[in-house]
Prior knowledge:
Elements: E1 10-15, E2 18-23, H1 34-47, E3 55-60, H2 71-80, H3 82-100, E4 105-110, E5 113-115, H4 117-123, E6 127-131, E7 135-137, H5 151-158, H6 160-169, E8 172-173, H7 175-180, E9 186-188, H8 191-205, H9 210-224, H10 229-244, H11 246-256
Parallel strand pairs: 2-3, 3-4, 4-6, 5-7, 6-9
Antiparallel strand pairs: 1-2, 7-8
Amino acid sequence: MSSLPVCQTLLLELHNGVLHITLNRPDSRNAMSLQMVAELRSVLAAVRDDRGVRALVIGGAGGHFCAGGDLKDMASARAQGSSAHRDLNRVFGALLQEVQQAPQVVITVLQGAVLGGGFGLACVSDIALADHQAQFGLPETSLGLLPAQVAPFVVQRIGLTEARRLALTAARFDGHQARRMGLVHFVEHDPQALAERLDEVLAHVLCCAPEANAMTKKLLLASAGQPSDALLDQAAEWFSEAVTGAEGVEGTMAFVQKRKPGWAP
């Protein structure tokens, strides 16, 4: 069995072949810091070749899944210049690729905020379970930014038509709407029902042979096409230009100062 890395931003629990990964920065609604990205990638690498780990269940502490990228990391990157923003953005794309391509069945349990990068994680899961009151959205354009690394995975998950509407309006929507557009598979009305649904899904997963599942997932992803390295590299460049430009500075400052940005009515 794999030895798991020591993590400060994640809680890890391995039980009966299922690795439960809990994003654990509840004070920031589990915003995705650079450290959390690095720790998630190290966990994925540790279990990649271990067929004794059959499923990965990703959830969040404190009633939220993930509120997106950590603006504090963006602020510190701003002081280092545009290349730091590009690199910070691109490493999250690498995480999304690695979650998408993990040989294990990846299940997300979505509660509270499922925004930006958290929305992206939901899109690369094999099976997504949501609380009916979960709040989904791509808020980046309302901050003067781009959903740069997330966008190709969103399009792959729910199609171009819905992705355009959501990304260009920063609209929020709940679990029922997420189910209707094919983002999530199951919607439940309370934590107990969500836990019971997770147990049911895991029972089905564990009936399937681990290597057969790994190869079937690889085949399905290859059949659907993959967001490419070149596209994600270009997206990181555009993100860097946006976050250091006038709109990005105004949008992120307005968010921190809890006011509307200058372009908002």
